[in-house]
Design goal:
Length: 295
């Protein structure tokens, strides 16, 4: 693995952008191999289908118990949130788990870090590989919601340019969140294993994944509006379902939602890069970058 990473910088005269791109590509390839090679392709395909279907069935039960008052519009809110959330789990948590698994399980972090590559690009590539594995879950959830549950999602309701722009911004914000979690994981060891799951669970509650932000207490509503994932989920619902959906921010136009998503994504990406640079430098100074917790 380290020899493959070392080959990324085999051309010293290459531009920094090309070296960064090659590192991201190799990190993506490595992440996909780790994600999918634990079994044969057929079993992996069945697992990729069975897991989201189980989540959809749980979703249907939740809808019939607590969400029927909102009718089909509330069901669409549930379905799109359930379809998009695996990207958050895989992308954000995958970024953090890449560092933690390389440091604690594979014990290769020190060799990857001293390779002539961009460590940030490597982590982003690993995170994108994790996010790619969520595509099947998202597609199956949306298809099940459309053809089995009757969610009003038609070709005429889908705003393709709006949805594509929102999806790209959402992936950038998810990677930024992952880098912030990595920032904390670099500086601690004993509790690093629990951190990605804890952050993911907190985001699931406050970002409007399964219920509108308007039902949260005022303090949590303010917190939710500062997180780009909240606006990404809102934009994806508007792009896929049009006006036939319950909205977390009914007083805002579609363009305003996308604009706020763009602004917050830019701020969080800049903050995550700055924080990661500081944490990386600090971890090197005190000698804990590759320290194992033996957990």
């Amino acid at each position: 693995m380290t020899s493959t990473l070392t080959q990324v910088d085999a051309h010293p005269r290459s531009s920094p952008v090309r070296r960064w791109w090659r590192t991201l590509r190799v990190g993506y390839w490595l992440g996909w191999q780790i994600e999918s090679n634990w079994t044969d392709p057929l079993l992996f395909f069945i697992y990729s289908i069975a897991r989201p279907l189980g989540g959809v069935l749980i979703l249907v039960f939740m809808y019939h118990v607590v969400g029927r008052a909102g009718g089909v519009a509330m069901l669409g809110f549930f379905v799109v949130g359930a379809a998009c959330w695996p990207f958050v789990v895989r992308g954000m948590m995958g970024t953090a788990w890449s560092l933690i698994s390389d440091r604690e399980h594979w014990r290769t972090l020190r060799y990857i870090y001293i390779s002539p590559i961009s460590f940030r690009a490597y982590l982003v590539g690993r995170a994108l590989a994790q996010a790619t594995s969520a595509l099947a879950a998202a597609a199956i959830t949306l298809l099940f919601g459309r053809w089995v549950l009757g969610v009003p999602m038609h070709v005429t309701t889908v705003n393709v340019p709006y949805t594509a722009a929102a999806f790209a911004l959402g992936m950038a914000s998810v990677i930024a969140l992952g880098l912030l979690v990595v920032t904390a994981a670099v500086l601690i060891s004993g509790e690093a294993w629990r951190m990605p799951e804890g952050v993911g669970a907190a985001l699931y509650l406050v970002c409007g994944a399964i219920f509108p932000v308007t039902v949260l207490p005022p303090v949590l509503q303010v917190l939710s509006q500062a997180i780009p994932v909240t606006w990404w989920l809102e934009a994806m619902r508007r792009g896929l379902l049009g006006p036939a959906v319950v909205r977390s921010f009914p007083h805002l136009s579609d363009a305003r939602v996308l604009g706020l998503l763009t602004l917050l994504t830019t701020v969080w990406v800049a903050a995550s890069l700055t924080a990661f640079t500081f944490a990386e430098r600090r971890a090197r100074q005190i000698g804990i970058l590759d320290r194992e917790s033996m957990y």
